[in-house]
């Protein structure tokens, strides 16, 4: 079993290094094929491990070697394969493998094809380290590793120039990449502080030892540690107020958006909360904060998706919104439901993104859904895939999203947090609306793209075939809810609906479904028969507020980026040069000048010297007198 | 080899003297050969080093002026071992990568003398010998900046020399005073550090002495507000000068704190924690901001050095093994990474004769290998896990957290502000379209540059993934030092603050 763990973990690394060897040479299809094959190996190993853990119920611990040891701190490279990590491994490798195969087609014409596979596999390796580590420091390795890969991949088309915010809200790929990295670093500081708190209070960073020691810790320590770790989670999972980077990250190639910014990396924050559930379940205030923030983000992000015209940004907002759902579940103590939604969401959201990639490919990188329409004729399969994924996202039975999202909404009701419940229900309606607004504007109605001289075509066959596993999983994953529950609750705390909720389950489900179907119906009415622009609404305050993301990116620029640059400049030009350095030079100049001045005493004239001697003698006498009087 | 340390110190100097008779064409090969031998000697020292011995090893002692207790006294422990190896490595790499046409022979000889003084400083256990090497190191650097530097080289070199020299004079007074007290208490003169360690001084004496040593070390580090000589020195120095200055000379200051201030004045050091931490935090945040404002690529790296030295200073005053050990490791890591970054700036300067970032843009398209190496060093500089930069920074921050959580959070912003200025350099220079026609035809790294940079890349990854061989000796010596400080401290506060690791072994 140990070998399987290593294969699952290191096959992506081998793939990355292999592709990296060809990083600077021209496009080679076999690089993509070998990478995908290695990813497939990693996936197979992960699934075998999953089966093993399912069979035996016993986690596998592997300690490779010591990493850092200093003072009393000891950090090994240790990995654990238990119910939670093996679920994550499965999700990550399945989606990664599909995305790798997909990229062979999607990146077909890119001259940096080989480099792309190197980065993509490096990302998978980091993600595997993140989910498999058996200690917080190992988690942090993966945490930072995925951050760097995300930086590399968002900025993959680094040669594009900066544009103004009006032309392109994310300015440029390299700008978006830096934004993502820096925002994540802010959160990482929180994460580090959490690690420090645990270390100094427990003396170890191993999950098992930390969780065992939690009952001995005081409440204040637990609360600050939980809060600090959650700040870390907020960065990776792009929770408000650290959310702006996620939509800008859409500057990266679409397979990257599917893998990193929808299915895997952004769920790392949720994973952290699930992993550290013993800590979070002991800190109810922090947990409730998580749930409340998650619900808020679910609603907030969905509202921005309602009016967006950018194919990828709509999906990005929906990712943000679904992450909010996951945090809501985790915050309310339903860790297994959060994990279930995480998995289900990964499948249908990756499918949705990859479908969007097909559309982009067909539309020559045009992203404005107002310029599309009627594509279902040319792109039947993509239409089916995206339609299916959108149905799943909207929570229509019997697709995956119905089971997982409905369970979260039910949890909010079960916990008696009615406000959260209402917000989540309304958000479900909004989700259905924006998803199908997108589907209808893209695939139905008049063919608006013709005016722009675009001739769309369906994606390569093998790519469409490669997407089928995701489509199947998006369709059927929900049926495994019961089995999944039994599997992960061996490790995660049990969460069951109360008797009362159980009775109302059908009613509750019906309410959610009404909202979802209502959203779809509304979208159908407005958009299915072509785009009718409504100038009045579009110029309204609310529409503009949403379209500009509540002006938050502008606000950050005005109150953070610009002042930081200005103060930095001031620090350099006014403080460092004019005060600190000028003082040093001033002292030097004073010494030099006084030396220069007193040099004039050296006249070579004996009587002058005698005069100075007399003055000196008097001064000395005065000093002697004064000191005698004072002493 | 009984006298390995003496060989290490004087081999470069003797070879440097012989260098005068080497002819001009082969001066460079000669220099590289000597530096390589010296480097292998230092590796041999590591090989022969006993990891389980936390004390001084390979000790050599020859009385020079017995009446005043001045002796030629050398030794090495886990703290100095790797700084020595790093010095010889960076000299070798610097020598290989050197791209100087004018008076190359003089440069080679100067570098070899400089190497002697650097190795000498880190191996000396006698204050007078230490001071000799410490001051002598200024001369070759003065010459390197003054003779091969940019347009403002005279101003920059004089400023560097006078500023640091003034600081060291105050330190010398402190040293003489310690010797005087030693004589007063024991009746014999001694400048041996190991003798001085045994002195238990009253807190008021400790404070004054701490201040005297502080001036000398702080200017060298350089700590805020004594740092302004550094941007000028880097701005004017040739690449090789900047590499050695950043990689090794700055470490003399931080090494001095570990070797002198902490064990000699434990109580004063504990009192100084808060002020030093505040200065360190200013160094970290303020110079990171100043770095962000720079337009010249080399100045960014220069200011970033100050910022990283802030982390090192903070760790030294964490008073626990995690922090101090992390600082020593961070000295190595900063030496490797900043040295490499200065070399990388040199690469582009050789091609374009400018370091202004607005002249560049899109370099990643034209020079992919260069962009790759720069990217790796950038990530090491911002402390990415599994690179050398993470280990030290993480240990320092975790160590200092035990002293003050709030100050650690402030210092921890280094991971944010560091990323801000480094990523902005990378974006301005390497990303975006190639806008300047002059950049379109640039050559990627040539063989010489590749040979000098690849080893550094390998070290960055190796010590990031597997820092154990280096951490272990450091760990032992630091733990021994802490338990010694704890025994020696006289105030209750100091005893409480100095945290002896539970896993400390008995000192042999």
Give a brief description.
Chain A is mostly helical and about 625 residues long. In chain A, about 70% of the residues lie in helices and about 5% in strands.
Please identify the structural class of chain B as seen in this structure: mainly alpha
Name the biggest interface.
A-B, 55 and 69 residues
Rounded mean pLDDT score of chain B: 92
Count all strands of chain A and give the number: 2
Terminal CA distance of chain A reads 86 Å
Q: What quaternary form is this?
A: heterodimer
Content of β-strand of chain B: under 5%
Principal-axes geometry of chain B comes out as: globular
Enumerate how many helices of chain A there are, as a single number: 25
Question: How does the SSE layout of this entry go?
Answer:
The complex is a heterodimer of chains A (631) and B (508).
Chain A: H1 2-21, H2 29-56, E1 60-70, E2 73-81, H3 83-106, H4 113-132, H5 136-154, H6 173-202, H7 207-213, H8 219-236, H9 244-248, H10 254-263, H11 268-275, H12 277-281, H13 284-305, H14 311-331, H15 335-362, H16 380-394, H17 400-414, H18 418-443, H19 461-476, H20 481-488, H21 499-527, H22 535-538, H23 541-547, H24 552-598, H25 606-630
Antiparallel strand pairs in A: 1-2
Helix pairs in contact in A: 1-2, 1-4, 2-3, 2-4, 3-4, 3-10, 3-15, 3-19, 4-5, 5-6, 5-10, 6-8, 8-11, 10-14, 10-15, 11-15, 13-14, 13-18, 14-15, 14-17, 14-18, 15-16, 15-17, 15-19, 16-18, 16-19, 17-18, 17-21, 18-21
Chain B: H1 4-18, H2 27-48, E1 57-65, E2 70-76, H3 78-97, H4 104-123, H5 127-136, H6 138-148, H7 153-186, H8 193-197, H9 203-220, H10 229-236, H11 239-264, H12 266-271, H13 273-293, H14 297-316, H15 321-352, H16 363-366, H17 368-381, H18 388-401, H19 405-412, H20 414-430, H21 447-465, H22 468-488, H23 492-497
Antiparallel strand pairs in B: 1-2
Helix pairs in contact in B: 1-2, 1-4, 2-3, 2-4, 3-4, 3-11, 3-15, 3-21, 4-5, 4-6, 5-7, 6-7, 7-9, 7-10, 9-11, 10-14, 11-14, 11-15, 13-14, 13-20, 14-15, 14-18, 14-20, 15-17, 15-18, 15-21, 15-22, 17-20, 17-21, 18-19, 18-21
